[in-house]
Design a protein that fits this description.
Elements: E1 2-9, H1 13-24, E2 29-32, E3 52-55, H2 57-65, H3 69-76, E4 78-80, E5 82-87, E6 93-97, E7 107-111, H4 112-124, E8 129-132, E9 137-142, E10 147-151, E11 156-164, H5 171-175, E12 180-196, E13 203-209, E14 212-218, E15 224-231, H6 232-240, H7 243-253, E16 261-263, E17 268-277, E18 281-282, E19 285-287, E20 293-294, H8 302-316, H9 326-355, H10 359-374, H11 376-387
Parallel strand pairs: 1-2, 1-11, 2-8, 5-13, 11-19
Antiparallel strand pairs: 3-7, 4-7, 5-6, 9-10, 10-11, 12-15, 12-16, 12-17, 13-14, 14-15, 17-20, 18-19
The chain binds flavin-adenine dinucleotide.
């Protein structure tokens, strides 16, 4: 039996960040991942990946505190200074700029795998972290004092605390019988990397169509990452199109804001759903990140919420002493769950509001957007909450 202070299942962005935050506090950490974890010498492939995230300043600060932001920024992150949002059925275009809130940027677009790589490389350098990759989780047993897990590779681990960061289909959640409420948005998101005739201007663009939002996110090589959420049937139809036809549809859906669009990558599609675990903390098991909550990507907040979980975990668990401090973890659960559930409801409501074709709703929506656009104070509030606890 291998004994650790904490076992983290999942070395994705959130799990790797949690493992690093706790290891930096001196706790012994076992990191269990079903895929290969990067070694310290691994480099980023030249080709940009399809999966990117809009990283908020609060998440950037966490990654900075963990000592990985400098590497991420130096490699290829793209800070965006403006956000432009409009609806296909309305006259108002909302412009948000970093200077409106006295900031240098509103956020940064970074490939998920770059964040993961930077975190995993740091973890490999720490003597108090044991990485167990290519593991298939078999069983979890909880007792009053510890939690044990076993894997198909005959690995047995005992820890004071088990952190589940194994994503939306969390095996830990299943094995520990922790229920979650969930639902489908009946939409899928198509992602691809494209080049555009006009420069992206370090701007995150989002056009709301009645069938779902379409975002163009700036990449550091001048190309753009697109996230096109559409009702399932429409998304399937779009996925069937040959590249050239898809690019024409895409440019048209985007009102040709950046001119002609050319395919750089293949397309991938993700069914969209929401979920929320009923309990995040139960008998020495703590759920964080997508294992605990899942939201619509329209506001680009999924991993930012997960990093918020990690930031509070790092704040609540002091260096020295036990990593399992029930009262502090319970406070974390309450605080973060309230935030995640609010975000989930808000993004679901926004999805419905922007998807409505009802004439009255369209009118009200346009009035609301024009109020935001013309009122500096409201705009600052909107930017502040989108940037998520700017600090
Ligand atoms: C189209 C799209 C666009 C998005 N854009 C944004 C955005 O702009 N900004 C944003 O904040 N969020 C965005 N999100 C959400 C974001 O991608 C997720 O919130 C984020 O990836 C969750 O990270 P995680 O580490 O919690 O889980 P995951 O990324 O799912 O990582 C889980 C890890 O656990 C491992 N694992 C799974 N099961 C096991 C097991 N049984 N044993 C061991 N390991 C296991 C997996 O291999 C993986 O490494 C987007 C989502 C989608 C679908």
């Amino acid at each position: 039996m291998n004994r650790f202070d904490v076992a983290v299942v999942g070395a994705g962005m959130v799990g790797a960040a949690a493992a690093l935050a706790l290891a930096r506090k001196g706790f012994s950490v076992a990191l269990i991942e079903r895929q290969a974890v990067a070694d310290a010498a691994q480099t980023l492939p030249d080709e940009f990946d399809l999966r990117v995230s809009a990283i908020s300043p609060a998440s950037q600060q966490l990654l900075d505190e963990l000592g990985v932001w400098a590497e991420i920024r130096q490699q290829r992150s793209c800070a965006y200074h403006n956000m432009v949002v409009w609806h296909e059925r309305g006259d108002t275009v909302m412009h948000f700029a970093s200077e409106q809130v006295g900031r240098t940027h509103l956020g940064s677009i970074v490939e998920n795998r770059l964040i993961q790589l930077a975190l995993q490389k740091q973890l490999r350098l720490l003597a108090n972290v044991a990485v167990f990759d290519l593991q298939h989780l078999l069983d979890i047993t909880r007792s009053q004092d510890s939690v044990s897990l076993s894997t198909s590779a005959e690995l047995n681990i005992e820890a004071q605390l088990l952190i589940a960061a194994d994503g939306r289909a969390s095996a830990v959640r299943e094995l520990c019988h922790l229920p979650a409420v969930s639902g489908s948005y009946r939409q899928s998101a198509i992602v691809a990397n494209v080049s555009t005739e006009k420069p992206h201007g370090n701007t995150a663009w989002q056009r709301f169509l009645s069938s779902g939002p379409l975002a163009f996110l700036p990449l550091s090589n001048g190309q753009s990452s697109i996230v096109w959420s559409a009702d399932t049937a429409r998304a399937e139809e779009l996925m069937q199109l040959p590249d050239e036809d898809f690019m024409l549809e895409l440019a048209q859906a985007f009102e040709h804001r950046l001119g002609a669009v050319t395919a750089i990558s293949k397309r991938a599609v993700f069914p969209l759903s929401w979920h929320s675990a009923e309990h995040w903390l139960k008998e020495r098991v703590l759920l964080i990140g997508d294992a605990a909550h899942g939201v619509h990507p329209l506001a680009g907040q999924g991993v930012n919420l997960g990093f918020g979980d990690v930031a509070l975990l790092a704040q609540k668990i002091p260096t020295g002493g036990s990593v399992y401090q029930y009262n502090k973890l319970r406070q974390l659960e309450r605080q973060r769950k309230a935030e995640a559930v609010t975000a989930m409801h808000l993004f679901t409501a926004l999805k419905q509001l922007y998807g409505s074709q009802n004439g009255l709703v369209c009118k009200a929506r346009d009035i609301g957007m024009s109020m935001v656009e013309s009122n500096t104070l409201i705009k600052r509030l909107v930017i502040g909450s989108a940037m998520h606890n700017m600090s």
